[in-house]
Design brief:
There is one protein chain. By secondary structure, the protein is an alpha/beta fold. The chain has eleven helices and 20 strands. The protein has helices at residues 12-15, 39-48, 81-93, 113-119, 149-164, 180-193, 208-215, 223-235, 238-252, 269-286, 332-347, and strands at 7-10, 52-55, 59-61, 68-74, 97-102, 106-108, 127-128, 131-132, 134-135, 138-143, 169-172, 198-201, 219-221, 256-259, 291-295, 355-361, 365-372, 375-382, 388-393, 396-401. The strands form five sheets. It has an eight-stranded parallel beta barrel with strand order 1-2-5-11-12-13-14-15, surrounded by four helices. The protein has a five-stranded antiparallel sheet with strand order 16-17-18-19-20, covered by helices on one side. The longest helix has 18 residues, at 269-286. The two termini are 33 Å apart. The mean pLDDT is 96.
Length: 403
């Protein structure tokens, strides 16, 4: 299932206009069904060419969604069970897969497990000197104790519950911080009930393929490639990207890599490299082996820079207009380029599992090829002056940008 998926990655709490903190939601109960705002965007996703929605956190949380307080409840800022059922029905009716964001490394400090661990000694949350262990210095997040078998039981229960409610797979947040043995055990148990479910692990550094194999993951995030794409374009040093493409193939020989040029945690690609660079980044993203995701708004040249402090990610997670007609007309050219590139990828589905090799490179130009038995895609990129790219498939030029 992961081999040929193309995801539209959306952060629902932001996209649907929910307040940052649950306690600040002053809307009347009947006005809190914000998840229904996604209805107007499902056809937009289909027309873009994507086959699935990679969702940011949707479970009840205190603020940004990564501070879960109830794994079994849709965040009230988004709605209730009827809103989730409606969303699943509408997405699946269009053939869209749904991947949920599972935050199983930690919970929010307001989760009932935290006081139970501290005051009652009930375990499941790591404690130090009578306090919860905060994750990476974040005192509002309490690390789960993955050596406690009840944590594994909880995660299996959560995963199977939402798979039964219509989810198709899971993104495992902070997968790199959780012992691989934990993932291997949990995912094995979940697959016994849902053999078609798929699991994407968030891994930032290290040997991606080794992590995937040890944990039984179907795919891992390709942060090395993400960094090389924007850094090479920004610094006009395509040698960096050429090296990353060689590494990318090594990883792809072992596991599926989730490729991206933007997500909910990083500065927008158009903010880093401008419109022309964003177009070249899209070319690279959609012509490489792997499982690509497009972060909502990147296909419209949205801007947003990661900041500091509590609101560091606010600019990266904006509310969408009520429907696509409310988008800035100036961004549709990039949407159409994404459509063209995704259409090419769908026509030549072998690209997703092909082999990439660099054929020529210097500081400002790069040629690479993606091959499969009987097929050959050549991508020529030049950023010497005005960024430009040419894509040739089996000897026929199929895409040229600028047109």
């Amino acid at each position: 299932m992961t081999d040929h998926a193309i995801w539209w990655h959306v952060y629902p709490l932001g996209a649907c206009g929910a307040p940052r903190r649950a306690a600040d939601d002053t809307a009347a109960e009947h006005q809190r069904h914000r998840l229904r705002r996604m209805d107007a965007w499902l056809d937009y996703v289909i027309e873009l060419g994507c086959s699935g929605l990679l969702l940011g956190p949707v479970f009840a949380a205190t603020s940004h969604g990564y501070d879960t307080v109830d794994y079994f409840r849709l965040d009230p800022r988004l709605g209730d069970d009827s809103d989730w059922d409606h969303f699943v029905t509408e997405a699946h009716r269009r053939g869209l897969l749904l991947m949920l964001d599972g935050v199983f490394n930690h919970v929010g400090v307001d989760h009932e497990l935290v006081p139970a661990a501290i005051t009652e000694g009930a375990g499941m949350v790591r404690t130090v000197d009578g306090r919860h262990q905060g994750w990476e210095g974040h005192d509002d997040l309490a690390e789960l104790d993955h050596q406690d078998p009840r944590v594994a039981d909880l995660v299996v229960e959560v995963m199977t519950y939402w798979l039964a409610q219509g989810a198709d797979g899971w993104r495992l947040d902070v997968a790199y911080a959780v012992p691989s043995a934990f993932w291997s055990q949990v995912l094995g148990r979940v697959r016994e009930q849902y053999p078609q479910a798929f699991f994407l692990g968030e891994v930032i550094h290290g040997d991606y393929s080794a992590v995937a194999q040890a944990g039984g993951l179907d795919a891992v995030t390709q942060y090395e490639l993400w960094k090389a794409i924007w850094s090479s374009l920004s610094d006009r040093n395509l040698w960096e990207l050429a090296w990353a493409l060689q590494r990318h193939q090594d990883f792809c020989d072992v596991t599926t890599m989730q490729t991206f040029v933007g997500n909910h945690d990083v500065t927008r690609i158009a903010s880093r490299v401008g419109d022309g660079g964003a177009a070249i980044a899209a070319v690279i993203l959609l012509t490489l082996p792997g499982m690509p995701s497009i972060y909502y708004g990147d296909e419209q040249a949205f801007r947003g820079e990661k900041g500091n402090g509590w609101e560091a990610d606010e600019a990266l997670r904006p509310a969408l207009p009520e429907d696509p007609s409310g988008l800035d007309p100036a961004g549709w050219w990039l949407y159409r380029l994404h459509q063209e590139l995704i259409a090419l990828r769908r026509r030549h589905s072998w690209i997703a599992t092909g082999r990439v090799a660099v054929q020529d490179r210097n500081n400002t130009s790069l040629r690479y090829a993606v091959t499969a038995p009987g097929h050959h895609l050549v991508v020529d990129i030049d950023i010497t002056d005005r960024p430009q790219a040419t894509l040739t498939v089996d000897g026929h030029r199929e895409v040229t940008w600028p047109r």
